[in-house]
Structures are given as structure tokens and as C-alpha cells.
Amino acid sequence: MSPISRTALSAAAAVLALTLTACSSGDDADKQSADDAQTQESTEESSEAAGSKGESGSAEAAGLDPNNLPDPVATQDIPATVKGDDEATMTVQLFPLKRKGETLVAQFAFTVNSEKAADEDDPGDNLYGYLGGNGSWSPFLVDSQNLRKHHVLKYSVDKAQTDSVGTNFKPGQTHYAFAVFAAPPPDVDEVEVSVVDGMNLVTGVKIS
Question: Considering the entire predicted model, what is its pTM?
Fold first, then answer.
């Protein structure tokens, strides 16, 4: 994809996010808060299913089978911040979305690509650091059918989303993560996904 196309997609995503934010203000935002509160129990169940095994950052902790990983629905290389390597990138993958009751679980993989190998005693960095330390990792979903934007359910970061600062990994290693959102209505079978800043909005993502 050309730089012009990527710029156009990023601009379109920004306009769409602003439009959806405006649409979800006022009474609509209050309703969303009420809906989120009703999904707390489902969120805990979904999070436990996603992160009940393995150390943070592992495939198991993200609810994935390391021996039978699903095919990603989207993959993109974005710039990564690695000391001493201005050309470092990060391969970001989004796996199929799973509807679990009133929630939707998204799973991701992050692999840093760098010619500067970490020393044996170097612990590497966390996801927040590789992303440049600018803000937090805040994925969201877009339900274009109902013009709704779905953020991660923030009852507890540890329960609803993999911590972006709690686990270090080195270039060449893959860091797996999950995030739990309020599910769109049952008749919505696809959404757009904003995985991370710097990655194009992933469109037409089917819900399984």
C-alpha cells in the first residue's frame, strides 16, 4: 500500500472516530455506561477464559493455543522504538473476534523486528515502551451499522485488557494480548477494529 493510501486510510479513521465520539455524547454516552455496567459479570467471565493460564504476554494468557494459533485477520508492520535502532519495526497481528455473551474478545500478537539484538542481561522493553511511550495501548471497535464506538471495558485493566507495561519482551519474541469490549447487538456480524496507533483501521472484521 502506498504512503498516500495509508495516509488516506488514517485520515478516514480519524474522521470516523471523531464522528462516532460525537454520536456517543450526552444521553447516548450515559446509555453506553449503563450498558457497560450490565456486562461486568460477562466481562469477568470472558477475561478469565482469555487470561486464566500462563504468564502475562504468553499465548495461553491471551486465551490462544500456542500449538494451534488461528490465522490472523490482519497483519501490519509499524514503527517501533528500540534504543540504537531507528529502523526497528513491530509486526502487529489481529486474530478473529469472539463473541462471548454480552462481550467481544479480541486477541493480538506483537513482534518487534530489530537488527540490534538485546544483550543476554537486557530484559527488553514492554509494549508501551516499544510504542514510543506515548499514551496507553487503547484499542477500540467501531460498529458502523449503529454508529457506536466500543472501548475496552475498564472495570479492571488486569481483567479486561492485557497490561501494556507489566511484561517485557525482546526483539524477535512475540507478546500476545487480549482485550474485552461490550458486544454490539446480535445482528451485527462485523466491525472495524483500531488495534494500535500507527496501524490502519482494520475494516470488515467478522465476529465468530
Answer: 0.77
